[in-house]
Design brief:
42% of the residues lie in helices and 14% in strands. It contains 16 helices and 18 strands. It is α+β, with helices and mostly antiparallel strands and 509 residues long.
Length: 509
């Protein structure tokens, strides 16, 4: 139905009879907008409800309701025997508000938010694992084999806790986490990773990222120096920078982080962030000699070591390597772990194993951040571990991931040749492929994304972005994809590489 426009003095009220908005509210909005914009000035006498009813062609109750709303909000004032007027007490800064609001919005859009220094640092860092978090596609990083998780067992455990919940599970719970889960974690880590700890040292957190943020806040002051592996986990880098740390990139070779070079670059560093069992993203394992050297340096320098053991369960030859924490004799290592890779990411449960002197600090930091994670899910996970389901699941995943890695390596050798050299590795759920010198990693990654494949270039993992790139390659996650998806993904990646090669040849012609 067509709109109808009528005027009151110099103000326009537009009514849409087909709208779901009540007519009285349309009349109210038209009058209010005219007042705020200055089209109806203070002191103006309004038509009587009867006259305005005739003018607008609506019921008298419609106009009366609009007037009453404006009177109650202070836009109008009524004088007995005289009529209804635009209030004379309307503040000047509300007049012309309609026009002014657009100008204010534009100024705000141009103005940068007044963030703190650490806030500005945090806002400039991107830590998203995938540009398509709701639609995983080869070869996205950080995604486990969700198709192989024992959901029926998990459903049963969770249903048991939800159907007959203990009253203690419905309260706030301990800031350090559900006691039986802490006991299960301590027992599991002692047997599987040679971690030396008591349940009292375990704090349950909402994933490793929260643990990193807690550790950075507790152990670093603005301006403190922290070592970080030259190629590293961007989200860990973000947490340290957010705490105001000055990061020093320490080279990594086939034996892992080079402790001697780190000591030469920054001998008085306050903290070291490291992934010794399976360096992220390059995949190397830190040698025993380097581990002992790092522990000795930390003791002498009174420095802390953050050991991120993000996917240590997935080692395909022999037993998982012993954790650095198990070698620590002086309480310098804070051990971080997560269930995001071993169970599923949305569970958002991880843990911190703190030295005894830091337990109270981590507990209080956890309580300030969000008090505790869901106790019901912690209880279900505790049973999942205690009843042996977790250990069986890990054994199955080792076999499955070994098969999927083989599928990736074989497909790459067959279709990519020397363009992208991928070698097998005894651990993890991702591989690094080295690109031919003729190929630019950013260009290949962008072209692959256009064709439907995620292939992360190496340069975002590098702390220093200036100067020549030390390595040129792609980081490919394979854990979440079956053999067919992996082969299809490699074929698409081959097309992307071929497209980039053809473009570079044309550019040289």
């Amino acid at each position: 139905m067509a709109k109808r426009s009528n005027s009151i003095s110099s103000a326009n009220i537009t009514l849409d009879l087909s709208s779901d908005v009540p007519l009285y509210w349309q009349v109210y909005g038209g009058l209010r907008g005219a007042i705020l914009s200055g089209r109806l000035v203070a002191g103006t006498r309004l038509p009587s409800t009867r006259d305005l009813t005739v003018e607008l062609g609506v019921s008298r109750n419609t106009v009366k309701n609009a007037y009453e709303q404006l009177l109650s909000e202070g836009y109008l004032e009524s004088h007995v025997g005289s009529g209804t007027y635009i209030t004379r007490n309307l503040p000047d800064d509300l007049l012309n508000a309609g026009a002014a609001s657009n100008a204010i919005a534009k100024r705000r859009a141009r103005r940068k938010p007044a963030l703190s220094k650490s806030g500005k640092t945090i806002s400039e860092i991107s830590v998203s694992a995938s540009p398509n978090p709701d639609q995983s596609r080869p070869f996205a990083l950080g995604v486990p084999a969700l198709d192989a998780f024992p959901y029926e067992i998990w459903r049963r455990l969770l249903a048991r806790r939800c159907s007959y919940p203990q009253r203690s599970l419905l309260g706030y719970g301990s800031a350090m986490g559900y006691r039986p889960l802490r006991e299960a974690i301590a027992a599991y880590l002692g047997a599987a990773r040679a971690v030396r700890c008591e349940p009292e040292q375990v704090t349950i957190v909402a994933g490793v990222q929260q643990a990193l943020d807690m550790a950075a806040r507790l152990l670093l002051d603005a301006g403190d120096v922290a070592w970080i592996e030259e190629y590293n986990y961007p989200a860990a880098r973000a947490a340290l920078l957010g705490a105001g740390a000055r990061l020093v990139a320490v080279p990594v070779d086939d034996e892992g982080l080079d402790v001697q070079k780190g000591a030469a670059l920054a001998p008085r560093a306050r903290l070291v962030y490291i992934t010794p069992s399976h360096q992220y993203p390059l995949g190397v394992t830190m040698s025993l000699a380097r581990r002992l050297a790092l522990l000795d340096w930390a003791k002498q320098s009174d420095a802390w070591i953050l050991e991120d053991d993000y996917d240590s369960e997935y080692r395909y030859s022999g037993r998982p390597l012993a954790a650095l924490q198990g070698l620590d004799q002086h309480g310098r290592v804070i051990y971080l772990g997560t269930f995001s890779k071993s169970v599923f990411p949305s569970l958002r449960l991880g843990y911190v194993i703190a030295p005894p002197d830091l337990v109270d600090a981590f507990s209080k930091a956890r309580s300030l951040m969000s008090w505790c994670s869901s106790t019901v899910e912690q209880a279900a996970l505790a049973e999942f571990i205690a009843e042996g389901h977790f250990a069986r699941h890990i054994r199955r995943m080792r076999s499955l991931y070994a098969e999927r890695q083989s599928a990736l390596v074989e497909a790459a050798r067959r279709e990519l040749g020397e363009s992208l050299r991928i070698q097998s590795h005894p651990a993890g759920v991702h591989l690094v492929g080295r690109l031919s010198e003729r190929l630019d990693e950013a260009s290949v990654s962008q072209q692959a994304a256009k064709l439907g494949v995620e292939a992360q270039p190496l340069f975002p993992f590098r702390l220093k972005r200036d100067g020549p790139s030390f390595l040129s390659g792609l980081v490919l996650g394979y854990g979440a994809y079956d053999s067919r998806e992996i082969r299809q993904g490699v074929s698409i990646l081959a097309r992307a590489i071929d497209s980039v090669l053809k473009s570079s040849i044309k550019g040289l012609a």
